[in-house]
Amino acid sequence: MIPCTAKGSLLVEAYRECGCLECQLRRVQDAQEILEMHREAVDRDFASGTLTNAEADNIHAQIDERLEHCSTRRVEIAFALDCQREARERAASQERRRDWRDGYDFDDNVVVLKKERPDGTHPNGG
Where are the alpha helices (DSSP H) in 1-126? Predict the structure, then answer.
């Protein structure tokens, strides 16, 4: 996992240069917003007569292609973020189990109860 170098920064350049998944997702979202603005500009230019129908269709096709790429990339990043979250949750769960198991000694597959766990509770529930 790449650590975020843009955390807490209000500078746009910070997340544009960062390699973490959250910043990558933010860049893709920004790109989608810009493409949508370009689409609106093309529609205005076509409505004003600056662009022909063929030119507007050609530009729309290019924008659609890029938007499709952005959508695919968003799904990939979202999946990777979910995997990271699940891995962190699994690690935290294993740590909690490890802490809980500290109340027991496992010797040749025989469980021997200790007096109390590190949190002060007794393994027998007391």
Answer: 12-17, 21-48, 53-101
